[in-house]
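for the recovery benchmark. tokens below, seq after
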């Protein structure tokens, strides 16, 4: 009877924990899609370029904004997408501007293949969309380009006088003094991090010197050249604590870009005086804690419903001669030694297939998995088994158990993807490829399954079987998995 009461108490505690983490995730999801309430966001609209590419874009419209709103177009970097710059768009919309974030061809939900020289077509197509709107003043535009997104921006703003400001974030500057017609108003802000891996400050100073007609050695960062009243303001904004990737989310950069646009169009009244980058980051943390906590709580619950574990079907890697410490050292050593060869084997996947972010992640994980694969090869030799025989051992279970395990893995993968998509995917880094790229997903899926098979053979087959149930053993297991 006491055992029954104890079991009921454990189930009750699990139910309470699931409810708590589900509540945190639900609350975080609600808040991250409704804050700020002062703007209206419309996702995944499309427009067609002159060369037939379907361009996906999001719009951010201030509630109770001007009847004819000034607009800002935002372009992302290579192998990322429009969601990455959502923070810039939200702050600008709160400042009273109509904002469009676009997916360049070959990225996100847009069609086509990446051709940098054709990216201006996407910007032009979005401008035509803005011209067709009755509530947008398409004669007063701004452009923000992050990394690769700065290249089409440079070309567009040089030739199109409807653009009154250009902000390059972690990108180069290809606008010289002679490129700007006399009397034209064009305010230019270049944002760069001290540790930017893609663009060097020295190079940017050379380019900026051509704009203001000064020697690069005399260019002073964080100093305003010209003025907004005259329409020739220019500046390099340097942050000494940021790098290339973080420029897309750095709160100082977002604030500087927002203020630059506001100073360019001083007649625009903000609809919301608050700054939401900090608030949204805390909401994201709340959402992730709830979502990831919920995921790990659901694993044993879903597993118990689908899979009945039998002692004779539990996979074990027989490495009794190695202690936990020696095993960990061996795995780390092999991972380091064979990481680069593993990367090289995956280069064709990265270069030949279209999903570059997925390819990069698969390549990095395979680099480590390849080292573990070499460890399993050594283990097989000791046991007088081939590597293929070693890899087959986890599958030596009944057909019913195998199907149930595959079903369990599929359900958990979908659940984790949905959690990450609702947290990071729609707010910081999009995770949904264009439908034209879906046929390639199974290739990445197969390689990722192989990677995790290797990880699980080492961690569960060898590591877990050497650990007990104490907190110390749990910590050891976490460190080994890391």
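predicted aa per position
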């Amino acid at each position: 009877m006491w055992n029954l009461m104890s079991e009921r108490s454990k189930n009750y505690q699990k139910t309470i924990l699931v409810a708590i983490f589900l509540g945190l995730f639900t609350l975080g999801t609600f808040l991250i899609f409704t804050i700020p309430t002062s703007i209206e966001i419309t996702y995944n609209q499309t427009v067609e370029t002159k060369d037939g590419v379907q361009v996906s874009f999001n719009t951010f419209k201030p509630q109770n904004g001007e009847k004819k709103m000034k607009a800002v177009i935002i372009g992302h970097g290579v192998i990322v997408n429009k969601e990455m710059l959502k923070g810039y768009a939200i702050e600008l919309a709160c400042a009273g501007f109509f904002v469009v974030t676009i997916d360049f061809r070959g990225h996100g939900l847009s069609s086509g293949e990446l051709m940098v020289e054709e990216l201006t077509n996407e910007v032009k197509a979005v401008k035509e969309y803005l011209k067709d709107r009755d509530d947008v003043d398409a004669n007063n535009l701004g452009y923000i380009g992050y990394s690769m997104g700065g290249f089409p921006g440079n070309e567009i703003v040089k030739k199109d006088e409807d653009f009154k400001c250009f902000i390059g974030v972690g990108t180069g500057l290809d606008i010289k003094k002679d490129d700007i017609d006399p009397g034209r108003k064009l305010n230019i802000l270049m944002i760069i991090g001290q540790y930017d891996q893609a663009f060097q400050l020295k190079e940017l100073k050379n380019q900026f010197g051509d704009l203001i007609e000064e020697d690069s050695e005399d260019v002073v960062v964080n100093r305003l050249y010209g003025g907004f009243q005259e329409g020739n303001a220019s500046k390099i904004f340097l942050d000494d604590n940021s790098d290339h990737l973080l420029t897309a989310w750095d709160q100082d950069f977002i604030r500087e870009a927002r203020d630059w646009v506001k100073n360019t169009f001083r007649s625009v009244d903000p609809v919301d005086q608050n700054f939401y980058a900090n608030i949204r980051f805390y909401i994201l943390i709340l959402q992730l804690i709830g979502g990831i906590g919920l995921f790990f709580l659901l694993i044993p619950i879903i597993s118990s419903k689908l899979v009945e574990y039998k002692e004779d079907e539990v996979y074990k890697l027989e490495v009794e001669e190695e202690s936990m410490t020696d095993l960990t050292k061996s795995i780390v050593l092999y991972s380091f030694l064979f990481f680069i060869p593993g990367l090289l084997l995956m280069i064709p996947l990265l270069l030949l297939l279209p999903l570059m972010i997925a390819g990069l992640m698969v390549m990095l994980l395979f680099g480590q998995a390849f080292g573990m694969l070499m460890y399993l090869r050594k283990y097989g030799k000791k046991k007088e088994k081939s590597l293929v025989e070693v890899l087959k051992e986890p599958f030596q279970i009944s057909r019913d158990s195998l199907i149930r395990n595959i079903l369990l893995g599929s359900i958990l993968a979908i659940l984790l993807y949905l959690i990450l998509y609702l947290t990071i995917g729609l707010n910081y880094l999009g995770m949904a490829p264009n439908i034209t790229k879906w046929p390639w997903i199974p290739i990445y899926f197969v390689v990722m399954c192989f990677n995790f098979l290797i990880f699980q053979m080492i961690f569960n087959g060898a590591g877990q079987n050497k650990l007990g149930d104490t907190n110390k053993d749990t910590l050891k297991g976490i460190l080994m998995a890391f």
